[in-house]
Amino acid sequence: ALCGSLAAVSAANAGAMSVSGSASMTWLSLDEETTGNPLGIATGLTFSGAGELDNGSTFTVSIAHTHKNVYSVSNVSITTPTLGTFQYDEGGGTGLDRIDDMMPTAWEESTGTGVASGLRTVAGAGGSTDIEWSVGSGMLPDGMNAYISWNPHPDGSKNSKKVASGDNGDTGVNNGDGWDVVLTHSGLADGLNVFAGYSNIDQVSNLGDREQHAIGLTYAIGGVTVGYQKSVDRTPGVAGDSTDAYSNNAWGVSFAVNDDFTISYGAHESTKSRANGTETGNNLDITTETKSFQASYTMGGASIVFAESEVDNKLYATTAASQREGRTIALTLAF
Questions:
Q1: Which residues, in sequence order, are CB contacts of 169 under 8 Å at separation 6+?
Q2: What are 268-305's pLDDT values in tens digits?
Q3: How far apart are alpha carbons 42 and 25 in whole angstroms?
Q4: Which residues lie closer than 8 Å to 217 by C-beta, 6 or more apart?
Q5: How many helices (H) and strands (E) does the chain have?
Q6: How many CB atoms lie within 10 A of CB 215?
Q7: pTM for the model
């Protein structure tokens, strides 16, 4: 009887669990601004598990814990033999959010180096807790991937088991569901990857549906990769907001000098369009732009990076205080 019980326990827990992690230390310097202590640190752990069902389907779970926070990102995926992968995701990075900025870099997106810009990119329904279907490869042409994401109420919440978000302060803007469709294709030519996506989120009637889309490409030849993309977020914000849209353009180029050393330069600009002259001086369109030169060097499980970044019109404002320049040095250890 004991052997039978042990066998049952073993079958019920078939699979494996692993843990990986990292630690990153940074030094941030901003020109003509008081930064205080420039030292920063972030540590993280990622728990990954995998198993298999009797019908050949496999499942995975990933839980990320970031420095000084509760579990920040988690997802559960089931991959079937024919239909593809179904993922329950909490934390973003699915749907349209997976292509918000696909430009090649040596380290981070031009908006993510620590020189904060407030630039708005697209996220869609996949920017918060959602369910995504990655269509099976047998149903698509070689090199193509398709992702369909759905969110019953895309308000950015992350709920625990048996909990709903309720009124979490989104002022009723997203009073319906949202869905995304994303396509990527790497089989059209060697080194070429094209991508496009569309998102629709139901909002209060006086705003209309929130529509977002993105399209772009990257092309790699030798150690050089170049990229360009456009994205638009139409009818964002809350009821009564006069912002019509955020129209974005991003480009980047990276060069892998060798297997360990990479440099890059890129920019991302976003123009906020308004329906009336509520901005100072009746300026209806204001553009925020980030530019970043980056270099990274990898030594086994360690990497050191440098980023020189510039922001014009932070938070879509044209004051002198909204122009920023700075640099970041980071040392990251992976284990």
A1: none
A2: 999 998 765 444 444 568 999 999 999 999 999 999 99
A3: 7
A4: 192, 193, 194, 195, 227, 228, 229
A5: 1, 16
A6: 16
A7: 0.87
